[in-house]
Amino acid sequence: MICFFFYYAVSLLFFAVEHQSTMTKDLISGEVLKAVFPLLDGEDLVSCMLVCHQWRDIARDDYFWKCVCSKRWPSICKRPPPSLSYHKLFVTFSRSQPPQPLPPSRLSFDDLEFYIDLWSEQRLVFSEAVSGTALLRGIKNPPPGIPDALKVHLDSDDYKMTMQVEPRFSLSLGRMITVSILVSRKDTNQIARIVNQSHFGYVDGNAFRALAYDYLNFAPGHPFVSGIRAWVSLLFMANNALRITDVFGIEIDFCDAASSENEVLWLLDMLDWK
């Protein structure tokens, strides 16, 4: 919304045009605008640039934008950036910038192989090498009688990688249940760790999921990336106080940081590959 000073300028302009016959309208209006523009904030000055060519040309004077910037960042007027105008400074940094879309990843799920091992104490209960494309396909034939809460979760738009477990198995909650996941890539013949002996420390009986997580290790080329977790979920049919029964699926996601296939691939590409 144009502030009071803008309306004041217009009033002065009409008064000047009416009473000063020896001066052109453009000259009168230009002098009035130059007196008022330094009093405006940035948003109003931007609006003024849209009025007409004359107003736009006058408002391009960087002096007016220096006045705007001095109100928002007074210190920058003491030692201005060497190659950035005050107009550019305001336009670039005065508003929050939308996140930039990621370019397509160099990595593909066709190149990936996941190695998943599940232990109950010292007993191996599940061990499988799964292709990246198989994880993308997900669970195509969920078992009959799947709990409604879990069905809603699997049908949601949240990005996740899921595989079906065959044959199904049950686990005792009184034992230490852990999972390890490695991933290899065919394009570079390297391998990285996603999860290392992580404990399923939380069982959500309402959602029919047991969850474990581990923090990802990134390559030295990404030293400031940290605190991103890989989550592993066991999907089961039923549970009681001592057991989770009929584990039929395993789910992997990186919901802390990645919510699309492209974002997951960028995240995996940054791992500490050996």
Automatic annotation (TrEMBL):
Residues 1-24 form the signal peptide. Keywords: Signal. The keyword Coiled coil does not apply. InterPro entries: At5g39250-like, F-box-like_dom_sf, F-box_dom. This is F-box protein. Residues 22-68 form the F-box domain. Pfam families: F-box-like. The lineage of its organism: Eukaryota, Viridiplantae, Streptophyta, Embryophyta, Tracheophyta.
